[in-house]
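for the recovery benchmark. tokens below, seq after
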């Protein structure tokens, strides 16, 4: 019997720390560097400046956080954008025996 068992997490071994690919890490690292630079430049004793300083790191962290059924939020946003902005073409493959074809056309 030719049956193979593939583990559910076989793709995780191709990711860094089992969660991130290179682009994800670069996005996160650049966001953290920008946040650290803003923390050093802006007067963070005021709440508005503290929020502005933390915002790039938090945004990049949100984009690379893993979500179920997708790699991360960034890929989910990309797939949703592509779905809503491209023209959809659905081929009818219904439950009918003749699959929507008229028997009179034969």
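predicted aa per position
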């Amino acid at each position: 019997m030719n049956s193979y068992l593939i583990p559910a997490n076989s793709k995780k071994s191709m990711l860094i720390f089992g969660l991130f690919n290179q682009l994800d890490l670069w996005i996160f690292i650049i966001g953290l560097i920008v946040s650290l630079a803003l923390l050093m430049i802006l007067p963070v004793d005021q709440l508005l400046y503290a929020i502005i300083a933390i915002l790039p790191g938090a945004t990049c962290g949100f984009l690379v956080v893993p979500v179920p059924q997708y790699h991360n939020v960034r890929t989910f946003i990309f797939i949703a954008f592509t779905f809503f902005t491209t023209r959809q073409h659905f081929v009818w493959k219904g439950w009918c025996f003749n699959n929507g074809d008229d028997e009179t056309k034969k």
